[in-house]
Design brief:
Blueprint: E1 6-9, H1 16-19, H2 25-35, E2 40-43, E3 47-53, H3 58-68, E4 72-77, H4 83-94, E5 98-104, H5 105-109, H6 115-126, E6 130-134, E7 144-147, E8 151-155, H7 161-165, E9 169-175, H8 178-194, E10 196-197
Parallel strand pairs: 4-5, 5-6
Antiparallel strand pairs: 1-2, 3-9, 4-7, 6-10, 7-8, 8-9
Length: about 200
């Protein structure tokens, strides 16, 4: 039962090998932050909802989390090429929600990356969202949405069309759990501080 569950949240990805591979001061600083972190026990609260893909409600659940936001959305992404997710975030900005996105730099903007990611970032930045990309880790593999500091979307689901239509993926949403959101907010803020602002190319 949900009332007897607790979540062990591992805050830090462990880029130790990356930090030791000669990538300089930023990588070493990340390693130090990671070494200082530990798992946290978070009391269960709210309601859990689960979706899958393909054809298991995963994408619809992600979109519902975005549509639920009244004040703030904080998004952490690896792949970010989904037109539907981008459209939902644009609608959120138009209704006054503050949108923050931090995504993997190399996968989305590096050599061979899909042009869809740059287009999505540009659309969001021009609409007033704050968009940053991060290269401090071997990969920024988080797939998380925090809505209004109380709803938390997790799982394997990348924000991409392939995740919705081709891959086996899972989406878990913990509705109404501010304590869990607070833990993930700390993780978000760490990565946000290591990221650089995205600038649209005209």
């Amino acid at each position: 039962m949900l009332s007897t569950m607790s979540f062990l949240i591992l805050l830090a990805v462990s880029p130790i090998a990356y930090a030791q591979s000669g990538f300089g001061a930023v990588a070493r600083a990340v390693g130090e932050l990671v070494d200082a972190s530990s798992s946290q026990d978070v009391k269960a609260a709210g309601k859990l909802e689960v979706g899958f893909s393909p054809n298991g409600g995963g994408e619809a659940l992600v979109l519902r989390v975005i549509d639920s936001a009244q004040r703030e959305l904080k998004v952490m992404a690896y792949s970010f090429t989904s037109a539907k997710v981008t459209s939902a975030l644009l609608k959120a900005t138009r209704r006054g929600v503050k949108v923050y996105l931090v995504a993997d730099q190399k996968h989305n903007l590096g050599e061979g990356a899909s042009r869809n990611a740059r287009a999505a970032f540009s659309s969001l930045a021009e609409a007033g969202a704050e968009v940053r990309v991060v290269s401090a880790f071997a990969i920024h593999h988080d797939k998380v949405i925090l809505a209004d500091r109380k709803h938390v979307q997790l799982g394997s689901f990348n924000f991409s069309a392939a995740a919705a239509t081709k891959n086996s993926e899972n989406v878990v949403v913990n509705w109404d759990n501010p304590d869990l959101a607070r833990v993930f907010l700390s993780h978000f803020e760490r990565n946000w501080g290591l990221a650089t602002p995205f600038k649209p190319a005209y």
